[in-house]
Amino acid sequence: MPQHSPATDLLGNPLSLTDSTSWRLVDDFVGGFIACEARAANLALTPHFDPDPLVQAYCATLQMFAESADAVANARPFIQRAQAGAAQATPRERRYIAAVAAWVAGDIREAIRLHEEQAREFPRDLVSLKLGQYHCFNLGDCPGMLRLALAAAPHAADVPYLHGMLAFGYEQCHLMREAETSARRAIAMERKDPWAHHALAHVMLTEGRLTEGLAFMEDVSETWIGLNSFMVTHNWWHLALFLIDLGRDDEALAVYDRHCWGVVKDYSQDQIGAVSLLA
Fold it and tell me: Could you say which residues form the signal peptide (predicted)?
């Protein structure tokens, strides 16, 4: 991706930010979010307050991704501040704020509608795109996942993580050749793209390419550093599935012990992965 000016995020989207510390934290959020990296959370973990509406909306996003019983209550003050200051935001930022507000309010279909609008009007807002895909996945709307990524594809082909998002959308729609092509394109551009690894693992497992899939995941596993807990445990989970299907149960259990359980024990996604692997 090219160097960006202080007036834009690292994907070239104009920003309303005025706080210099927030520039760095927003870059961490945007870059970390689309790459499934833990640095996305720096925005919430750094003791720095900025009332900027986009910063507040991104903080609300992080609170909601906790997927905990109190996630909505924790996110609400952030999204309320974002809405209160939305008049100073750019049109892209205002739509993102509205989409997160719909999520906090429990109106997931409205959130998806807004993310789809965003993908058409501001196709390089890949944070919005990835969040929209998350909602579509949770509703079982596989065509929606793909539709979001396809809208951005002509405008963000230089971003490797876009191709990973495309790959998983294709795979969920059972378009395996397109999925593999997109995943391999992402990996050729950025070897450390865990979402593309994940999509290709889906393809190989679906097609029964067990030995090849295991070798691939073992090869790229060295790049699974600095990821959020879901992504790192989930990719090791996929590696363990290949081992199980190959009859190598003891090795799969060792992967479980070392990599799939214990990263963030109170996170629901990590819990689900660990329990399902033992089932």
Answer: none
